[in-house]
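--- STAGE predict ---
source: upstream dedup step, 1 unique chain passed
mode: sequence only
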Amino acid sequence: MYKERDLKAMQDETPRYNYFSGWVERITNLRSGNTGEIDGCTKLYTLQDDQGSIVTFTVDVRTYFVDGYKVGVGSQITCYYSTNAPVILIYPPQYRAVVVSQNLNDRQIKVDRFDQNLTSADGTLSLSISSETNIELENGQSFEGNLAGRDLIVIYSSSTRSIPALTVPIEIIVMCP
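--- STAGE serialize ---
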């Protein structure tokens, strides 16, 4: 059994988020373990990528859909998940989707925790905020606080080729705990 401080240390580990991109092969309703009835609020998305790898994602009311995108069978999407969340040991692997986005060629999406310099926890992206950058909460309300030390969904169109890459985001969605 883990001690409370051990759990806290595991939650603070980086990287915090990973992703899987693929085509939606199947969407099913989650059934209650006790009654076998359809939950109605939780879905399972089964994705397959170009190499034939399959991953299942639990999608519920806490999952953020970039641009409110409606997913259907055949959609090409990316699901982001927390690497610190517990997972069940089954095949195909199953994660809880934190963010779901449609794959578009004209923009990139980064989900990560950003430090006081607005550099992602994995050190691959640094943000330069402009007056044109739309910053809001997951519910669409504007965000007026400090972005440092927060988990962010960053939507951008281009970046430098440096490490970390520098970008001026189009939009930032702040994920509040």
